[in-house]
Structure formats: C-alpha cells, structure tokens
Amino acid sequence: MEIEYIVGEKYKEQQERQRLDQLNEGHKQEKAVGYTQWNCTSVLLVSLFGIEALMPLVLCSCIGVVTSFHLGFFLEPTGVARLIKQNNLPSGWRFHVINSIIHVGPVFWMGWLVMSRSLDVRLADGLWAACLHLSWGLFQTKGTLLLDKVYAPMSRFSWYAMWTTAVTSEIILTPWFFD
What we know:
Elements: H1 8-25, H2 35-48, H3 55-75, H4 79-86, H5 93-116, H6 123-141, H7 156-177
Helix pairs in contact: 2-3, 2-5, 3-5, 3-6, 3-7, 6-7
C-alpha cells in the first residue's frame, strides 16, 4: 500500500477545493442581499432626495464596488460563469449590459453629481464608505469576508484581494482622484 503525502501548496490547494465544493453543495440556501443592491439603492435615494452631504460617500462606495467586482474577472476567469449559474443571471451580452447598469453606471452618475455640484470628496467620505462596506461584509460572512454564499465560490486569495481593492478604492483612490 502506497501512502501519498500532500505537503505545502498542494495541501492548501486541496483544502481550498474541498471548501469550494462544500460551498457549492450548500449554495442553494436563502440568498442574502448583495452589497451592489444596497449600493444601487443608496444611489437612487441620494439622487432622488438630493442629499448632497452623502453624495461623496456614495461615490466612494460605487468606485469600491466597481473596482472590486471587475478585479474578480481577472483573478478568476470562471467566476463570472459561476456567478451567472448560481444566481440565475442572464448570460452573454445581457449580463454585460446589466453589469454596466448596476456597476459602471452608478460611478458615472455619482461622479457627475459630485462634480456638477462642486462637492468635495474627503478622506472621511472614503472611510465611512469602507466602514459601511466592511461592516456589511463582516455581517454577511460571520467575520470571514468570504462571500461565497452571497455571490459565488471563489478562492480566499481572490476574496481578500477584492476586499483590499474595494477598501483602497474607497479610502484612497476616490478622494485622491476627485480632490
């Protein structure tokens, strides 16, 4: 009888695959509301009611969402297919149209609102946006920030890279760009 030893990276890869397989099996549970939906709701509310004090914060949030989501395309090329399949989303060009409307559109809309009203985007706006985003993520994942059950299973590295990108975009990139 031959004993096979899995060490180092091979063991980690196997553990990660098992974790993703387990999540795939239990993914059909009750769905949580994704942060993109909360973000789009905040865009609508601050736009409809003209809440200028919150417009810079919402812009920071929009840019955090769009940068994070699109980083996922590069980190896990099959992640979009899993997202589409597990969330019953339309595929092909329909997916990309919806993606543009809910991820890219809010950035341009909020950017236009902020710039046309000459509003300042401060570090505090980015910090508040990141706090809200992280609070939502920690609540949804019971502290892990792995949003496999909300969106689609991905590697830990991908989730943490996407979170890092979102928070960096909210706190640093947006206030710097709109300064």
